[in-house]
Amino acid sequence: MLLPPMGLFGAVVILLLCTTAASAAVLQNGDFESPPSNIKLNSTAPILLSKNNTIPGWSFNGTVYYVTGGPNISLPGKGHGILLGQNGVIRQTIKATSWYADYILTFTIAPMGDNCSASTAVNVSILQPWQATCSVFLVGRRKTESWETHACYLGTWLGDDKPVVLEIRSEPAKSDPNVTCGPILDTLILKRIGTPRYYANNMLSNGGFETGPAFVSNSSSGVILEQIYNPSDHFPNSPLQEWNPTGIVNYIDAKHFYVPEGNAAIELISDFARIEMKRVLREGPTYHLAFVAGDANNSCIGEFILAGYAGSKTQNFTFHSHGNGSAHNFSMNFKADPDFISNFYPVTSVGFISYKGSQAKDGTSCGPMIDNVVMLDSSRGLKARLQTGIMFSSLALLAVLLNNVK
């Protein structure tokens, strides 16, 4: 089949091919259930690894233990994990085959015991050929489980078959000299996500928070989002596509929480927790921002104070939660008020901040749930939305036609 000369159509073809790439990088032995060689699993005591041991899929340096879930070690599914001593590090070389895709790592982290919580921190890095770093510290907000699930953004990989090195090392804690203290890792899941998608009825991509990290199947606590902080980056990347989290922000799923629409939503846990994105908006028109807020059905009872903001306008929304799952529709109008000028484009911040959260019955910190965020340019009206809908329908038809080309 012959395609027209390169132009708008050609650019669209390349974009569609890039976003529909099927293959992705695979993480081996991410749950550590394939044990190291030359060891006997006849007790729950940590086993110190040496040069005579190898972990399927992983290499390691420093003080590293293979541990089993039990009375002193809480892990998802009561399985196995890796304990990183103060100088412990594990690495895996991954082959990325999907062209120009973003990668997100989900994993659980736990302390060795109650006396080791000060040492529970890890540094997640991509060493080659691109650089990405994410530091994760145990929040300790849950009372029923000592382990938590976190997610890190690992950057955009070009997918040219070059090896990518994932490294996870323990963060040193001078306050704890115990060499057996340190973070325990378990259930690592690597997820590939494509380029952001826009639809006719929403100027925001990922307004429903559907594109984010993978959920751990046997965890009911959600995923705590981590941001890679770079002061010079006006469009920071995070595990939640397009959105920038600050404070304790929990990514929740419909299987274990109340989610008004789709499969995922976010919960702002800590006071002043924030979720935000940057958008290039025209000055002059009036924009309409609508969203759903409530509680996630996690016994979080109390009064929530949530603020929505866009540019220089901030509007507070107050509602009471009974902790059994609720949703309220809110909206606000605003005009674009650029925070800064980037490459001659006016960029406006749009987001939400929690001023007041609460606690669940078990003492777990909790806060307002947000979902289905929609922004529209009121001045463009229905005609523009219909034109956009026709364009996206044409792109969808083109994707189908390309899929049928052998």
List the helices and strands and how they pair.
Blueprint (H helix, E strand, L loop, with lengths): L7 H12 L27 E2 L10 E3 L2 E5 L11 E5 L4 E7 L5 E11 L9 E6 L5 E6 L10 E10 L5 E8 L12 E11 L29 E3 L18 E3 L2 E5 L10 E5 L5 E7 L5 E10 L5 E10 L2 E10 L3 E10 L4 E3 L2 E12 L1 E2 L5 E2 L2 E9 L3 H23 L3
Parallel strand pairs: 9-12
Antiparallel strand pairs: 1-3, 2-5, 3-4, 4-11, 5-10, 6-9, 6-11, 7-8, 7-10, 12-14, 13-16, 14-15, 15-25, 16-22, 17-20, 17-25, 18-19, 18-22, 21-22, 23-24
Report low-confidence residues grouped into runs of 5 or more: 1-23, 382-406
SS strand fraction: 35-45%
Report the total helices.
2
What is the CA-atom radius of gyration, in angstroms?
23 Å
Distance between the termini: 9 Å
Helix content: under 10%
Which structural class best describes the helix and strand composition?
mainly beta
Mean pLDDT comes to 80
